[in-house]
Amino acid sequence: MRLRAGLILLFLIALASCGGGGSSQGKTEGATDVVITIGSRVSTSELGIAAVPEVVRFIALSVTGEGMEPIERVYDVAGRDVLQITLQIPNGRLRHFVALALDENRKIRYRGEAYADLTGEPVTIGIMMVPIGDDPPEFGGLTFTEILSPTSVMLGWEPAVDDFTPQDGIFYQVYVAQTSGGEDFLSPFLVVTGETTVTITDLTPGETYYFVVRAFDDGGNTDGNTVELSVTMPLITDNTPPVFGGVKRAVLGAPDTVILSWNPATDDQTPPSEIVYRIY
Question: If one looks up domain 142-232 in CATH, what number appears?
Answer without folding.
Answer: 2.60.40.10
